[in-house]
Write a structure and sequence with these properties.
Blueprint: E1 2-7, H1 12-22, E2 27-33, E3 41-42, E4 45-48, H2 51-56, E5 62-65, H3 72-81, E6 85-88, H4 95-108, E7 112-114, H5 120-133, E8 138-145, H6 155-165, E9 188-192, E10 195-204, E11 210-218, E12 221-229, H7 236-248, E13 252-254
Parallel strand pairs: 1-2, 1-5, 2-4, 5-6, 6-7, 7-13, 8-10
Antiparallel strand pairs: 3-4, 8-11, 9-10, 11-12
Length: 260
Amino acid sequence: MIRVGVVGANGKMGKEVVNLVLNSKELELTLAVDKFGAGEIIGNTIIQPELESAIKHTNADIVVDFTQPSTIFENIKIYQKYKIKSVIGTTGLTNEEITEIEKISKENNTGIIIAPNFSIGAILMMQFSKMAAKYFSNAEIIEFHHNQKKDAPSGTSIKTAKLMMEANDNFKLGNCQETETIKGARGGDYSENGKGNIQIHSVRMPGFVASQEVIFGSDGQTLKIHHDTINRSCYMQGVELAIKYLYKNNKFIYGLENIL
């Protein structure tokens, strides 16, 4: 049995992970952390309110964390401090933080998987976008999420842009000089070292779970690659894959596509 801890156990994604673990014949819930609902019992596990204290005394092999962008970087450092492997689903980490986390992971010889998205369909959408990027001169991304998502743009849209930039370093060929009469009307310009130039537009609205559309254009044609998340249960296949992979491997991984 793989002993699993869930941090953010009372959150929307945390509850899905808890159900995954409780209903699996290969996983065992040995740790649950959340400041909301502390003292409640899920399975045979009491929800703990304070992360480091709980981590210090756990026997979990792997922790799954879907918490807040504002705390995830410090959470990861705690997992590394106690040499507990972690599957991270929270987005909002900067490039600099990801680089530092990779360094810490290698120094401690303690594996981490950070995935902006755990949906297999979303992973395929990103891979198809990378394939298409080679053949189109222009591209923009529109991502849609519920209005309780705190970070924008989404981690999935940023990961998609990074993959596209591996195939093409300028997606604004032929564009005229633009003037925004309303600031932000053209979304955010995602670039790295002056390359990429992909406009990302973030929509936040009740009724959405998560959707993304990548629009490619060239003379005389457009191509749209679209993925919809209908409910959060679709992420659990990817979470389970990540847990089982990390149990057998001790690597730093950014992006679920690297273990499929």
